């Protein structure tokens, strides 16, 4: 293993000189951070980057600029912290033949829920190189539900996803799958086993766009709209949207759902729920987009099954729990959007290599209703084609609590 | 009321020596023993002519007869527990008529007020609570009285939900999962009339409408909130084996006697957290023979003073008339007219929620009852005749208004099976539901006490018959079926379409006093035959008598003297069977409609929308339903040592066939049309028909619930009350009571469950048949210590109650997590065994118990100290005040799972003013 140590050493000055009230002294740690570069790149030179240290309990953030190998010293009091690194480097990518290519790219690392309890502390952060896949991106997710003019939640199928061809060539939507993560960003599981989120993403529901490979072409700069019930909802609820132009809808069976004949259905691959698929309206679940043409739903159910154990902990009470879900290989994932409710966030539902951070609509309160999460416009090409921001970092790439615009890609 | 003191009668047995000493004329000495002040007959008093050792025991009418006595001078000795013993000289000669002996009630101190429940074992194991105790307790409703029972503790009243009685059930035990067999099986009798709620049908078709389900007593028993306490003279709560006179019960009997006497005007004003109570009443003499009683009571309860949206109020009013003529044939006629109204209401806050949800409930009940008692003082065999008739009409209306998410389910209105085209409900709308119940109850009872003599034994025979009628004349659920409050479930049914239910019973009971040497054995045994009438012959209960044999036995040992104290010992034993017939809700559940959508064509063009569904109807009526039957065993010991009285009682109750609403399964086949195989909306100009589409044959499980005799409830325990009487040094009456009790709730019939799993692109294909559920075993042990101080000079009664809950615990019934067998969609059953728990598909039927699932959850000691003070102010006023949990000890503890529990008990108080003019 080629390990290059960016001998990052973070000195947390332990202020041992106490306040007048000695008894309430908060322990402070001296922290050394070791950054491990990815296995598949050779060497690198650091351009620039930031380390963001977030106190999970207080939400307080410390941002430190990483200048080469020199780092500022900070005082870090006892607590639980998240460490996030985002920077740019030059590196050599090695291909199968052993040829090296000099590349410039973004490098990232994330370590969550690290408990700092005073004293000396060593911390490893695995870095990874981010490379944007030139493919579809999830341009908008509307999960937050609308409210009727009378003030009641309208839970009648106006949730939607919008997928956007962010490239300059024609792409085919055939076989594109939307998956909902099994884990929620607001519920950190204790002693999760097996935890192989570095290679797979656990999902609880997967729906696939039908087609034989070339049935559903999408032009560069165009999007497809996938909704729950593809009708004009405005006639039922003035606060909702017209989704009659949807390209696909998801359908969960005649006894619990309605089927709109004008719009083809997604293929239901799996679902952990026996009810209709309703996205969590506080954004507790995250979403992935992947391609899987050749796997039948039956085969997916059995071949991609994921059984996991964890511990339910409430105070001092501990219960052994287990559950069933499915897992999607991270290699197959072409886009991922972490979602959460800011005040309840606990951990990432999937590998940070897929999405470094997360976005949200409101904060679990009423402001979320009628709002979506929407990708920002990066730039507009000369021919008018909009290129959306896709740095696999949803906190940066997305507009949280955005005004929904189903079927429309805004230019700014 | 002195009736209850009768219960304590302890008879002195005197050896029979029947020698004729003088050859003088022999006469028959007969007479009557009465209470000095009230002239109420004293039952079970021993009348002894000391010199000749001849004796007799008085019957219900206080009468005794001693035959073959020679004229002459004697010392007459009359004794009965609760009365002062009489020893007086008497000269017997022929021709004595209407000889009366007046006994004075024995009191322990001057003007002593009894504020505890008095234990008795004569009419089964029971506690009697009298007016003084009720006054001192300051109850808002009947539920508050129960804390005086052994095992009872003070519970803060919450009047926004129904209050059901719980006898011999640990506090933690929640009948919620076990279909309320205890409360359903407890009979409430007011002035001889049985309250019924058998015809209550306030449930709604949608079993998920828990808001309503938790707020009505359908099939659950009597809501004690509705019973006002102010006109109660005494309440006897029989936890043991009641007389066969009382039937259609399994757990116990609450026998309430209201006042029919003349009494001064009283008013009571009570206030405690959440509730205000105001009541007035008066009993007036109309003439020498008749009296009229009137009272009115108003209670207003708010769960939270800051939140006026959840509240409960009750109004009760009663007019009672008594005519009583004492003569050779004494006649007592009672008549009563009662009104009870109760109202609860809740609204969502329009400030927060734009649209208002409204729930309101109105309950109006009128009762008319009469009873006639004729007693004869001369007949040698006929003693009295009691006739009772009672009728009530209730108007019970609930209204709900809520915004509904229609889920675009079809509107279902068809009442027959088949395939139908339908229309969709809109996405959202306002739904209204009215629940209209109009139960009518009529009950009547005729009974007679007869006296017969065999082998020198007095038989007090009770013969009686009982008929009652229940029917609901209400409209049931009333709503617009095209805009239902609960979308996609059921069809409304009018309650008045359900037949009435009638029950008859005949009963026979004999009470014998059997002297053996110096011992006395009182045997009281009888049988009650119960039968349901007007039930379709398809029902198992339609043509059967169910017999309830019940025996109570008291064995009194001769009085002995230890350390100058009289010691009386009495052993008690009892066995009884008790049956309770199902209510209308158990017998006549509505048919279940299963609607399966076969084609959904929800076009964007509203005019082209089409839905097609298939309906299957399943009748969930259980024709095999039996009455629930509870078998009780009682064993007790009463000790009287000087003024100390101890009552110890062990019991075991077993109800093997309690009602339980269990899940059942049916398979339904249907077609699933593929809309992609049919026309596109652009190609048609009217809704498509099913023949335009290809379909696939499908099968699915349909679940419904059925009332089954499927609950097994076992109760056992030990109850005790020790009354140390007045301790002079403390000027207080010291007493303690409590109980150790255990109750186990288990399933006796299997139930069906389907794992909520999505397998192989479909819902789970099997249904498991489980012989276990989440039933538990509960246990608790408590002692309440009481000191009641009556300082007459200050008109002050001061009570301190130290309520110690030594522990309580529960544990889940053991099970292996596996179903017995499982069923596929073709109805084939397969045995399930251990190896299936690892099968990729079958493992989901295995509900693996977690490692700590069967651990005992134990809560350690908790102590609350309650104070009650009553003070007479002037001649007419009395002020009472209580503070509960004024001091408490609830130590923190750690559960076996490692959970640290910190307990907090908040004191609360109330006060009331009583005015008696």
Automatic annotation (TrEMBL), chain A:
**Signal peptide (UniProt feature, chain positions):** 1-20
Report the InterPro entries cross-referenced here: DUF4876
UniProt keyword annotations, A-Z: Signal
Q: Which Pfam families match?
A: DUF4876 (PF16215)
The answer to whether keyword Signal applies is yes
What is the name of this protein? DUF4876 domain-containing protein
The species this protein belongs to is Marinifilum caeruleilacunae
UniProtKB/TrEMBL annotation, chain B:
Provide this UniProt record's keywords sorted from A to Z.
Receptor, Signal
What the entry lists under Pfam families is as follows:
CarbopepD_reg_2, Plug
Entries under SUPFAM superfamilies matching the protein = Carboxypeptidase regulatory domain-like (SSF49464), Porins (SSF56935)
**Which InterPro entries does the annotation name?**
CarboxyPept-like_regulatory, Plug_dom, Plug_dom_sf, TonB-dep_rcpt-like
Does Hydrolase appear among the keywords?
A: no
Every copy of the TonB-dependent receptor plug domain together lies at 121-250
Q: Where is the signal peptide?
A: 1-23
> Record keywords: Zinc included?
no
PANTHER family, per the entry: HEMOGLOBIN AND HEMOGLOBIN-HAPTOGLOBIN-BINDING PROTEIN 1-RELATED, TONB-DEPENDENT OUTER MEMBRANE RECEPTOR
The entry's protein name is TonB-dependent receptor
Biological source species: Marinifilum caeruleilacunae
């Amino acid at each position: 293993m080629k390990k290059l140590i960016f001998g990052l050493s973070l000195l947390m000055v332990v202020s041992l000189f106490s306040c007048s009230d000695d008894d309430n002294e908060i322990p402070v740690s001296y922290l050394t951070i070791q950054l491990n570069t990815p296995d598949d790149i050779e060497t690198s030179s650091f351009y620039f980057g930031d380390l963001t240290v977030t106190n999970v309990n207080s939400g307080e953030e410390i941002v430190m600029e990483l200048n080469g190998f020199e780092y500022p010293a900070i005082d870090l009091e006892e607590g639980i912290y998240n460490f996030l690194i985002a920077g740019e480097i030059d590196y050599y990518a090695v291909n199968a033949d052993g040829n090296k290519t000099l590349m410039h790219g973004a490098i990232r690392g994330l370590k969550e829920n690290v408990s700092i309890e005073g004293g000396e502390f060593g911390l490893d952060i695995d870095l990874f190189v981010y490379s944007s896949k030139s493919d579809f991106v999830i341009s908008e997710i509307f999960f937050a539900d609308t409210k009727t003019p009378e003030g009641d939640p309208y839970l009648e199928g106006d949730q939607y996803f919008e997928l956007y061809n962010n490239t300059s060539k024609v792409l085919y939507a055939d076989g594109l799958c939307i998956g909902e993560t099994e884990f929620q960003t607001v519920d950190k599981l204790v002693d999760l086993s097996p935890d192989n989120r570095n290679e797979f993403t656990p999902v609880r529901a997967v729906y696939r766009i039908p087609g034989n490979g070339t049935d559903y072409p999408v032009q560069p700069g165009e999007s497809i709209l996938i909704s729950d019930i593809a009708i004009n909802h405005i006639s039922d609820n003035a606060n909702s949207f017209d989704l009659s132009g949807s390209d696909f809808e998801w359908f969960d069976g005649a006894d619990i759902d309605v089927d709109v004949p004008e719009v083809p259905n997604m293929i239901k691959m799996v679902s952990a729920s026996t009810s209709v698929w309703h996205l969590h309206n506080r954004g507790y679940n995250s979403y992935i987009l992947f391609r899987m043409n050749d796997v039948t739903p039956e085969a997916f159910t059995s071949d991609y099954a994921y059984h996991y154990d964890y511990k339910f902990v409430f105070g001092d009470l501990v219960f052994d729990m287990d559950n069933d879900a499915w897992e999607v290989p991270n290699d197959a994932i072409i886009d991922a959007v972490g979602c959460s409710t800011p005040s309840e966030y606990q951990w990432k539902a999937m590998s940070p290599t897929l999405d470094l951070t997360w976005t949200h609509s409101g904060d679990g309160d009423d402001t979320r209703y009628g709002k979506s999460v929407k990708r920002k416009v990066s730039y507009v090409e000369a021919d008018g084609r909009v290129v959306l921001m896709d740095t696999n970092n949803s906190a940066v790439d997305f507009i949280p609590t955005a005004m929904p615009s189903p079927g429309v890609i805004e230019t700014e | 009321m002195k009736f209850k003191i009768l219960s304590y009668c302890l008879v002195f047995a005197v050896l029979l020596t029947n020698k004729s000493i003088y050859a003088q004329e022999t006469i028959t000495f007969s007479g009557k023993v009465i209470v000095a002040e009230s002239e109420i007959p004293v039952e079970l008093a021993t009348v002894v002519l000391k010199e000749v050792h001849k004796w007799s025991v008085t019957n219900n009418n206080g009468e005794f007869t001693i035959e073959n006595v020679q004229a002459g001078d004697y010392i007459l000795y009359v004794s009965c527990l609760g009365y002062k013993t009489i020893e007086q000289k008497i000269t017997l000669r022929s021709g004595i008529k209407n000889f009366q002996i007046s006994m004075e009630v024995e009191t322990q101190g001057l003007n002593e007020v009894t504020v505890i429940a008095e234990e008795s074992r004569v009419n089964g194991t029971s506690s009697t609570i009298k007016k003084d105790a009720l006054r001192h307790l300051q109850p808002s409703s009947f539920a508050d009285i129960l804390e005086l029972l052994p095992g009872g503790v003070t519970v803060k009243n919450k009047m926004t939900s129904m209050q059901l009685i719980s006898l011999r059930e640990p506090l933690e035990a929640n009948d919620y999962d076990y279909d309320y067999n205890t409360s359903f099986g407890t009979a409430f009798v007011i002035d001889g009339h049985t309250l019924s709620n058998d015809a209550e049908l306030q449930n709604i078709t949608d079993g998920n409408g828990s808001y309503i389900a938790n707020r009505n007593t359908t099939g659950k028993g009597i809501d004690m909130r509705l019973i006002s306490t102010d006109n109660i003279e005494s309440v006897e709560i029989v936890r043991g084996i009641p007389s066969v006179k009382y039937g259609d019960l399994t757990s116990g009997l609450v026998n309430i006697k209201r006042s029919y006497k003349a009494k001064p005007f009283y008013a009571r004003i009570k206030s405690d957290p959440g509730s205000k109570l105001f009541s007035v009443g008066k009993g007036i003499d109309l003439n020498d023979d008749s009296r009229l009683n009137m009272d009115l009571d108003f209670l207003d309860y708010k769960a939270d003073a800051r939140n006026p949206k959840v509240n409960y109020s009750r109004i009760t009013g009663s007019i009672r008339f008594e005519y009583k003529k004492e003569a050779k044939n004494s006649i007592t006629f009672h008549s009563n007219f009662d009104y009870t109204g109760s109202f609860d209401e809740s609204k969502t806050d329009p400030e927060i929620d734009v649209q208002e949800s409204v729930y309101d409930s109105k309950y109006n009940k009128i009762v008319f009852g009469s009873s006639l008692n004729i007693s004869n003082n001369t007949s040698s065999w006929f003693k009295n005749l009691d006739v009772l008739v009672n009728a009530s009409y209730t108007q019970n209306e609930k209204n709900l208004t809520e915004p509904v998410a229609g889920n675009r389910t079809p509107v279902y209105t068809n009442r027959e099976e088949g395939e139908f085209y339908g229309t969709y409900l809109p996405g959202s709308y306002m739904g209204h539901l009215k629940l209209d119940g109009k139960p009518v109850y009529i009950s009547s009872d005729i009974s007679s006490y007869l006296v017969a003599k065999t082998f020198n034994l007095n038989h007090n025979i009770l013969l009686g018959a009982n008929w009652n009628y229940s029917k609901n004349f209400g409209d049931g659920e009333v709503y617009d079926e095209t805009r239902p409050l609960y979308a996609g479930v059921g069809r409304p049914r009018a309650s008045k379409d359900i037949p009435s239910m009638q029950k008859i019973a005949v009963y026979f009971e004999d009470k014998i006093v059997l002297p053996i040497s110096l011992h006395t054995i009182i045997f009281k045994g009888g049988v009650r035959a119960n039968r349901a009438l007007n039930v379709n012959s398809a029902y198992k209960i339609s043509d059967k008598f169910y017999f309830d044999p019940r025996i109570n036995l008291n064995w009194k040992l001769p009085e002995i003297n230890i350390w100058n104290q009289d010691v009386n010992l009495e052993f008690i034993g009892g066995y009884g069977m008790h049956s309770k017939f199902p209510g209308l809700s158990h017998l006549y559940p509505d048919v279940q409609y299963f609607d399966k959508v076969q084609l959904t064509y929800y076009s964007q063009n509203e005019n082209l929308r089409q839905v097609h569904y298939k309906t299957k109807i399943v009748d969930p009526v259980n024709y095999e339903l039996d009455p629930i039957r509870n078998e009780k065993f009682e064993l007790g010991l009463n000790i009287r040592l000087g003024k100390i009285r101890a009552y110890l009682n062990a019991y075991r109750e077993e109800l093997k066939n309690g009602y339980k609403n269990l899940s059942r399964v049916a398979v339904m086949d249907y077609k699933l049309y593929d809309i992609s195989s049919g026309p596109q909306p652009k190609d048609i100009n009217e809704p498509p028909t099913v023949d335009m589409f290809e379909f696939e044959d499908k099968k699915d499980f349909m679940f419904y619930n059925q009332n089954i005799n499927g609950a097994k409830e076992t109760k056992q325990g030990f109850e005790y009350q020790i009354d140390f009487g007045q301790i002079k040094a403390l000027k207080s009456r010291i007493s303690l009571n409590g109980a150790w009790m255990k109750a186990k709730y288990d399933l006796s019939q299997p139930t069906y469950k389907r794992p909520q799993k999505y397998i192989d692109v479909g819902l789970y294909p099997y249904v498991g048949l489980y012989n276990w559920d989440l039933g538990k075993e509960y246990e608790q042990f408590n002692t309440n210590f009481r000191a009641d101080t009556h300082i007459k000079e200050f008109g002050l009664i001061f009570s301190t109650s130290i309520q110690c809950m030594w522990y309580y615990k529960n544990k889940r019934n053991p099970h292996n997590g596996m179903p017995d067998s499982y069923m596929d969609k073709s109805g084939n059953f397969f045995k399930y065994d251990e190896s299936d728990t690892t099968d990729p598909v079958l493992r989901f039927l295995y509900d693996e118990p977690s490692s700590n699932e069967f651990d005992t959850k134990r809560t350690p000691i908790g102590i609350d100290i309650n104070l009650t003070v009553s003070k007479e102010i002037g001649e007419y006023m009395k002020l009472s005040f209580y503070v509960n949990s004024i001091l408490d000890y609830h130590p923190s503890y750690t559960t076996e799972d490692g959970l640290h529990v910190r307990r907090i008990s908040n004191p609360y108080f109330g006060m009331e003013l009583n005015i008696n003019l």
